[in-house]
Amino acid sequence: MELRIGAPLGYDCFPYPETTGMALAALRGVQSSGTERGLAVARRFLGECRSADALNWLRLGLLAHGQLPAGYCHPVAVENRTLRTRPSACWVAEAEKGRDFFLA
Fold this sequence. Notes:
With 104 residues, the protein is mainly alpha-helical.
């Protein structure tokens, strides 16, 4: 399935995992055909993505909508090794425990 989205300046572009997750997190509680498409794309990315930063944002976005697949396990080979990925990994871990300070 190839998905293109409209973009400013009239150019089609492909969605990115990081921005898809960020947008879904920001749109917590919003139900629309656009968010449903975004959730479908995020679930697809979740199974394909191997970037720690992208996976963290996807998980936050899906959690914001109660759509993180049951039993999801973060790939062992994808580590949060950088200063950029560790904070978002902590946000996800807390959100998964129900301590939703970031998405409250």
